[in-house]
Amino acid sequence: MTRNASFPTLLPVYRRIDIVFERGRGPWLWDEQGRRYLDFASGIAVTALGHAHPHLVAALTEQARKVWHVSNLFRIEQLEKLADRLIANSFAETVFLCNSGAEAIEACIKMARRFHWHRGQPERNRIITFEGAFHGRTLATISAAGSPRLTEGFAPLLDGFDIVPFADHAAVREAIGEHTAAIMIEPVQGEGGLRPIPPDCLRGLRDLCDAHDLLLIFDEVQCGMGRTGHLFACEAAGVAPDIMGLAKGLGGGFPIGACLATARAASGMTPGSHGSTFGGNPLACAVANAVLDVLLEEGFLENVRALGRYLRERLEALRARHPDRLSDIRGLGLMLGLKPAMENTDFAARLRERGLLTVPAADNVVRLLPPLVIGREEIDLACATIEAVLAEEDE
Predict the structure, then answer these.
(1) What CA–CA distance (Å, rounded) separates 46 from 24?
(2) Is residue 40 annotated as a catalytic residue, yes or no?
(3) Catalytic: which of 40, 115, 134, 254?
(4) Catalytic residue, candidates 248, 254, 339, 347
(5) In percent, how much of the chain has pLDDT > 90?
(6) Which of 39, 162, 219, 242 is labelled catalytic?
(7) Which domains are delineated in the chain?
(8) Annotation says 219 is catalytic
(9) Active site residue 248
(10) 281-324, pLDDT tens digit by residue?
(11) DSSP strand E in 165-270: where?
């Protein structure tokens, strides 16, 4: 077979930036030419502890010398340790390990449907979701979000989702019916434009679920694992879900995802009802345990909250000095967004030219997602870079 040389060897589903990074250390990356970049993208909130963190490197190296994979046909010590620690530090009573955020949310969706089926109510299979959400790229997760930019060309979509306007409690109440199984929401919408759900709204959703015998699912794939200054974003509101999806920062850069749940919510999940070949493998779990070692150190998350406040103060000062160029600052902790006057992709490109990496999002927002080990000196440098770009526009 002769290959079509005009078609790219990598499936053209990404608009890749023409930079190849050779190495990283802490919040810094170096490209092949040796140019240094301050990483306020963190692989889209993934490298929570920066690059080449010595504790993570040591954990991965040590495990790599022992065993890489055995499958879930056998007990896995590292997996059991990770599950126990996640349970000890959360609402959960049981954990399923997988490889990504999309897989974690798939497990959440299946668990919610199976819960009602197990109780003899198979008709209760619909999940209420919200406009602006992003839950992954599988058919189920794009169906849950419903955005045309995700779903175009992939019909027929998976039925079973009722999408309501963002933070509209009247619409949520109206959407609840005899077929409703659960409500699923991101406590902070990441891809949707760095929009936190107000604590009163999260508490209101908890009350609605309790009143109507629904399950509450939190998608904390991007906002979880210390990103907002709490191990889980929902902790700031004092609200516990029945099911939660995690990934990204959980592995600090190593692919891993998790579905956390109460025993009640998971009561329908029995042997053979779900699985993952690579999920919970020793390498991934060794790294995730190392991530937890750092996140759970005394004072670590408190310091993240302090750094988040400092970054926001600096950004608000920039907005005050350039009100015509910067209209909004939003987000929580070290998950913050800017809304520039210019196109967000152009703004991110100008920052990148000056050595600062960021991530565009919906609603013309530029995400700032520095590693949780960032320091004030790097925050000051990032803000100076942002102001330099804003000043260019004011000239």
Answers:
(1) 14
(2) no
(3) 134
(4) 248
(5) 97
(6) 219
(7) 56-295 (3.40.640.10), 300-373 (3.90.1150.10)
(8) yes
(9) yes
(10) 999 999 999 999 999 999 999 999 999 999 999 999 999 999 99
(11) 180-185, 188-189, 195-196, 215-219, 243-246, 257-261
